[in-house]
Amino acid sequence: MPPADSDMAAQVFKDPYLFDFLGTADPRKEREVEQALVDHIQRFLLEMGAGFAFVGKQVLLEVGSHDFYIDLLFYHLQLRCFVVVELKAVPFDPAFVGQLNLYLSAVDDLMRHPDDKPTIGLLLCKSKDKLIVEYALRGFNTPIGVADWETRLVEILPDDLKGSLPSIKEIESELEDMD
Q: Which domains does the chain show, CATH number per domain?
């Protein structure tokens, strides 16, 4: 990205993203994270920051004879570009970069208006090793960011309440017994 756009993009995106509004239980699948974020879209947009407009979830990209689905698609009003958000409920894997790069290229070719700037990718992972991310992104010219997402609700509970609340495993066990 040109320096001016790069500086603005660096100010727009952050790391980590705080998803406390999703609750205390960690979703186990990307679809669970995605659905929870869409269910709380207003709070998610506030967490993302100013200027993001929600375009859709599971946005279809037809590439050759294959269908691909973008987890979440946004348009950033100040940056004047699409933002592809790929969600992962697992730690960063270098293979995620290739998938996201495909999505960015397809959005640029299939959806981008000639006046729009190149699409930006944001990979939200449960955790990451910064050195592995650096190596995985080295040599890529497409604008891709990798950030963690986390919840802190359990960490901020007062000590006197921590032992009095049921654990996630206990709640899950109770719910399974109800089924």
A: 3-178 (3.40.1350.10)
